[in-house]
Design goal:
six-stranded antiparallel sheet, globular, 113 residues, Jelly Rolls, three-stranded antiparallel sheet
Length: 113
Amino acid sequence: MYKILHEQNFELRPGGTVKFEGAPHGSGASFFHVKSEPGKGSSLHKHPYPETWIVRAGKVRFTVGNEQIETEAGHVVVAGANIPHKYLNIGADILELFCIHPSPQILQEAVEE
């Protein structure tokens, strides 16, 4: 069995981010496909599972716990479970990244900064 899904049918979130949750499709994984303008990013949050980011284009600063990591296209970054984290587009161009969630649905809790 297989499914072919078209991204335009997924939930489109503010800023052009696409949200895919695997549960309705029989998948144990979910993701965000982010296309973020310069100076934009996520708010601080955490998940009960690790999150993996695949940077496809642009430059980004991840804050993971008390650490800041600056990276660019071609890199993969992993944040551990229950560690507050966020990202910020620090480049002059669109940031494109995939945020992989090893869960059939995205479980996210906001964290105060």
